[in-house]
Amino acid sequence: MTLSNRDIFDEIECGGLIFDPMIELNQVSTSSVDLRLANIFTIPDPHPPGTSLVIDPVRISPEDVFNQYAEEEVVPDGEKFKLEPGAFVLGYTLERVGLSNYLAARVEGRSSMARFGVSIHQTAPTVHANFKGQLRLEISNTGPYTVLLEPGSPFCQLIIERLSSPALITGESQWQDQSGAARTPQRP
Prior knowledge:
The strands form four sheets. The chain has a four-stranded antiparallel β-sheet with strand order 1-6-10-8.
């Protein structure tokens, strides 16, 4: 069952749902929470002309690939990241999210970004119960325009769902406690 804004505020108050930094009242809609964009981006390195890079996901993790074949860019305060048409980058939410063992969530894009051709995640919207950390976003621009991404601005939505029963702890997610190296301050 998707939580309403009333349920979201109740879960924040009792500690079942944690945001750091704490979200503002205007970030909560009737059934979702707007999360803001952090200021760190992971940009895959293009391979040299005439060569190709073949990735075998069974043998190498995404983090290993990006540690070897990508660079990180930290966008200074007051500046914006240019997302060119056809580009793919990884970003983070500004907020760290903490879910209890009876809550799960989905990260969804915002229609204002989708209408420019910006996708927030590829195929992995699920945030599992007990997750704690910044959310890593797979950002693509399939539109015809260069889109300026402003750190600190509302960028995606988190839809929180109550599980039918608390989840059994079977081991931590490989992405538990993930974090970008930099986070931009809150916007005024």
